[in-house]
Amino acid sequence: MKIAIAKEIQVDERRVALVPEVAAKLVKQGIEVWVEAGAGERAFFSDATYEEVGVKVIGDTATLWRDADIVLKVGNFEESEVDKLREGSILIAFLNPLGDPGLVQKLSERKVTAFSMEMIPRTSRAQSMDALSSQANLAGYKSVLIAAATLPKYFPMLTTAAGTIRPAKVLVMGAGVAGLQAIATARRLGAVVEAFDIRPEVKEQVQSLGAKFVDVTLEEDTVAEGGYAKELSEKAKQHTREVLTAHVAASDVVITTAQVPGRKAPILVTEEMVTQMKPGAVVVDLAASQGGNCECTEAGKDVLKHGVTIVGPINLPSSMPVHASEVYAKNLSALLKLMATTEGELTLNFEDDIIDGACVTHNGEIRSQRVKDALGVAVTQ
Amino acid sequence: MKIAIAKEIQVDERRVALVPEVAAKLVKQGIEVWVEAGAGERAFFSDATYEEVGVKVIGDTATLWRDADIVLKVGNFEESEVDKLREGSILIAFLNPLGDPGLVQKLSERKVTAFSMEMIPRTSRAQSMDALSSQANLAGYKSVLIAAATLPKYFPMLTTAAGTIRPAKVLVMGAGVAGLQAIATARRLGAVVEAFDIRPEVKEQVQSLGAKFVDVTLEEDTVAEGGYAKELSEKAKQHTREVLTAHVAASDVVITTAQVPGRKAPILVTEEMVTQMKPGAVVVDLAASQGGNCECTEAGKDVLKHGVTIVGPINLPSSMPVHASEVYAKNLSALLKLMATTEGELTLNFEDDIIDGACVTHNGEIRSQRVKDALGVAVTQ
User: Fold this and answer.
1) Is B12 on the interface with A (CB under 8 A)?
2) Do residue A145 and residue B141 have CB atoms under 8 angstroms apart?
3) Of B12, B74, B216, B244, which residue is the least packed, with the fewest Cβ within 10 Å?
4) Contact A320 B154 (CB under 8 A)
């Protein structure tokens, strides 16, 4: 079995799918691992560090894609890359199948067996493969560093000879993986933290991190399959905004993390709410590339509006490529374990709920119902 | 008595000398406070917030400078501003008297009574006026945020489903005010911290913040007047570099803070040491504007060299203008208390060691011996 680490082609993508430390373990299992020359460079892993652990560096891109049994990538996978894959080969990457179902269709036409890391089920057994979570954790951490570096104030309370500095007030909206890590990081830095989530059951987690939970009582069910937050009705959104307005106005920093898979992100912070914030306040919008949770967000930019800086970062995990690649590689290697026998032979067991859930195309067919729905393809069963 | 808050003219200076909260207290004491229109804008203090506390907003710069008894500024004061001052008036600002003694000469020729915030004695009584310390504290804090945001890794140790993340190793060179705050902030963020200082007596302070002290035994006296570090002999510098090389190589982040007043900063991190650092490591050089503690530093730039990012920030306090201005204003107001009687009348008591120490020009004369030395002016006593 040959596993190839392909080079990311997007300008802003600094991650690499497999780091030398993890590749070494596969090599020890008798698996042949190839890396495209320079693939790890932007994540500070030189070709030499791969070679040292027995990975073969391949200069010719076409050869690597054509001869590999499994191609590993991070994302975003582009349509131009589909034809590089050999029919019958396996691709594992972030494929954004609900946002870009057209790509999945192309992969199925190419008769590639494609695994989408976004589709790993959210079960305890699959936790070690949950790349959405491992990357969201990085984004949550980094969002707070950006907020603290942008805020014209200190985060911690400080007692100095020139008087006492009051701690910054941070409001985190959405207490998923990114939100919880944002809370933890803001607390580490000494801020006073509040958090809000439409799912009341995360209250305890929020409180255990030392943050106050902002209660917004809603009359509808707010939890979707897999523990994600559901999209709210207009009435519930309106009520939520009303409750949150005062909390936003009192905050020095607002970090928003609300995303609905495959859809435009919900607006949590309106421009009207921004006008009521303190001069110098900061919003970091982790949903910027999905349209943003704040009405003033521009993806990839820092916007100064009404005295408030709204930061709309794109792909924060890529800005921490060493650890982002390391945890992603560990996610991949856990998934690969399900595919390889102890003799290093490839087997795909579709009875396994993880293989079944994450595999979006196989034998020329789109396997995921949600992707089919996104494509508007009629169900044929 | 009329006190004027002048607008900073340097492009990168976002601070303002007096914030509304502190100005309000002076107004209550019966002092007339003026602010140049727009002076607080870049620190997020609008003219309206000054007016609300009884400060008069002055649109005409010439009037403000000519009619004020005391002009307050942050820095860097420029020669072009000298002539705006009325003869016999008082100026309080960072004047960089040892680095730019020519400016002090100009101020003396203009017969201005100039107080330089750098010259506040380092005594317990003067602590509340010690603006060098209050601003260095901001720089130390911010240096760690920059380092953490630049590092391609996490700072804290994290236990995740995708494995354990090892904490970042941070080495802080120079354990003055900036260094100690850098240590504290890096510790807050969960890094493992080592610190080095040529003054062995700071060891306990370093350890009390949870950092390890790197011992470099030197045979010469290392502490100068005022508790600052002394410039070392070439032999001692060489020995220090040898001991530090291994510590630098093992670090993910190195923060350097060594400055000698009025002189070029000492080189602590040579290019040779940088080549031995890990790929992706980060150096933040707080002495960048004094030539840098690292041989690879370029002031005002991020340099990627030998796989290491060397950040050479200029004027970090200005990047946190709300709190930087707030603590500076408190420093100024403590100093102003020594100059004003309870009736709001101006008196200068040169018997007071703070007034004596901080006043660099008065009645057409340069008062500070160190400034005279810097100018090469012969002593006339």
Assistant:
1) no
2) no
3) B12
4) yes
- Please tell me the class of the B138-314 domain: alpha beta
Chain B residue at shortest CA distance from A162: B128
Give this complex's ipTM.
0.94
Residues 294-353 of A with CB under 8 A from B: 307, 319-324, 326-328, 330-331, 334
**Gap between the Cα atoms of B15 and B60, Å rounded:** 20
Q: Give φ, ψ of B376 to 5 degrees.
A: 75, 20
Expressed in angstroms, the distance from the first to the final Cα of chain B is 33
User: Could you report the per-residue pLDDT of B281-300, keeping only the tens digit for each?
Assistant: 999 999 999 999 999 999 99
- CATH class of the region B2-129+321-375: alpha beta
Question: What confidence score (pLDDT) does residue A239 get?
Answer: 86
Please give the residue of chain B at the shortest CA–CA distance from A167: B323
Of B5, B2, B23, whose CA–CA distance to B72 is shortest?
B5
Instruction: For chain A, list residues with pLDDT below 70.
Output: 226-227, 377-381
Domain map (residue ranges) of chain A = 2-129+320-375, 139-314
Measured between CA atoms, the residue of chain B closest to residue A149 is B145
Please indicate whether the domains covering A2-129+320-375 and A139-314 agree at the CATH topology level: yes
Q: Which of A42, A86, A122, A241 is catalytic?
A: A122
**Residues found in chain A:** 381
* Tens digit of each residue's pLDDT (9 = 90 or more) over B169-222: 999 999 999 999 999 999 999 999 999 998 888 999 999 999 999 988 777 777
